[in-house]
Amino acid sequence: MAAGTREQFLDSAEVLFAERGFYGVSIAAIASELGLTKQALLHHFGSKEKLYGEVLRRISDQFESMEPGPDPSPADAGHHLKTYLLDIAQTALQSPDRTRLLMRELLDNKHRAERAGTWYLKPFLERLIGMVRAIPAWREAGDADALALVYQLLGAINYFGVSKPTLLGIFGSDAYADLDEAFPQRLGRLIDIAISSPD
Amino acid sequence: MAAGTREQFLDSAEVLFAERGFYGVSIAAIASELGLTKQALLHHFGSKEKLYGEVLRRISDQFESMEPGPDPSPADAGHHLKTYLLDIAQTALQSPDRTRLLMRELLDNKHRAERAGTWYLKPFLERLIGMVRAIPAWREAGDADALALVYQLLGAINYFGVSKPTLLGIFGSDAYADLDEAFPQRLGRLIDIAISSPD
DNA sequence: CCGGGCACTTACCGCTTGGTAAGTTTCATA
DNA sequence: TATGAAACTTACCAAGCGGTAAGTGCCCGG
């Protein structure tokens, strides 16, 4: 089960990097999660940086394979975008570890800019901009306006997706359960009204 | 200039913690920023954790002192909230370091829950919920709905406030300049339409 | 003029870190 | 049955970490 070990390393690395950040986890800690030594990990990945890079690449691949479906008619473009964004939100809320890891990467790639040559978000953002511009009401809008819109919606999604421990601590589990139910519904409304009135 | 040194330590600690995270910065690195040794830092703060705590407390104090002004008439409540949120956005975008640091804290206080007893965000969020409920159209809405709304708007603000290096890397400085101009304007619109239609 | 506290330094410590070197075991294949 | 690569292990290392101990120079009140 050698190939399995590799995947298992990536799995626990993803979880631990998400929880504590790159510098907050030692490769020994990741390896001991599987009952192995850090040299087993180094045997598979060569270095901590490369392991981290592979975790990121795997996430990026999964993102890439998340297809929005065929282009709809202009009349359906708004609904198409909404469905896609709600899909993203659902994925983000279901995989909070991945959401956390990507937000950490957003914070870190200033300092570690050399590795940031990947820009896993780029095709994803460009696809979203295209989907906005496909909506008749947005045909006249500039790229900057479309990007500002999608970035606001992505921000709303990801920020919430990362806040569960804090919100639980502040408001308690009962209030959080209410919020968790209200959020997707309100997000749907926010998307509706945001894309229906470009100016 | 002893008191000055303390503030300077807090200043450079804030910047470095924001850029690289708690585990990514050594106290020696913070101290050498002022041309001092790490023991000078330890003399003032006792430990790295305490230094970090004081950085957070200072930010929390500044937040607390950011007053929204007197309660307006119900008719003006919407405009009042909008102004306040745009103020927050402006502050967040003008102090990207602070925004980064707070987002890191949001990510970290799961793992380091013991320190998280502060919940600096709590009074802030409760104030915002109150401001939403003061809007006539939102009087019937539940707390969860109001919180979902403000959290979406805060997410939109903070996520963008933290993304400059990434967006620069993806789209280049020209496109980023356009986005930087479009964002506040579009944020104002988003707030307008979001608070005007609760259901 | 002198005593004590403040701001800071040099010296040191035990521990952890990422990484290297050199095996050892297992197992498929020739 | 020999061979060699893959998947690990134990042993080790230099560097960096946060923190302690013991000064050193300086200024300020008695």
Question: What do you see in this structure?
Answer:
Two copies of one chain form a homodimer. The first copy, chain A, is mostly helical. The first copy, chain A, is built from nine helices and no strands. In chain A, helix 1 (2-20) crosses helix 6 and helix 5 runs parallel beside helix 8. The first copy, chain A, is globular. The model of chain A has no long low-confidence stretch (mean pLDDT 92). At the A-B interface, helix 6, helix 7, helix 8 and helix 9 of A face helix 6, helix 7, helix 8 and helix 9 of B. Chain A binds a DNA duplex (30 and 30 nucleotides) through helix 3.
Shape of chain A: globular
Written as H for each helix and E for each strand, in order along the chain, the element string of chain A is HHHHHHHHH
Low-confidence stretches of chain A: none
Our count of helices of chain A gives 9
Considering residues with a beta carbon less than 8 A from a beta carbon on another chain, report the largest interface and each chain's count.
A-B, 59 and 59 residues
Q: Tally of extended strands of chain A? A: 0
What does the main sheet of chain A amount to? none
**How helix-rich are the residues of chain A, as a percent range?**
over 70%
SS class of chain A: mainly alpha
Cα-based radius of gyration of chain A, to the nearest Å: 19 Å
Oligomeric status: homodimer
Relative strand content of chain A: under 5%
N- and C-termini, Cα separation of chain A: 57 Å
Mean pLDDT level of chain A? 92
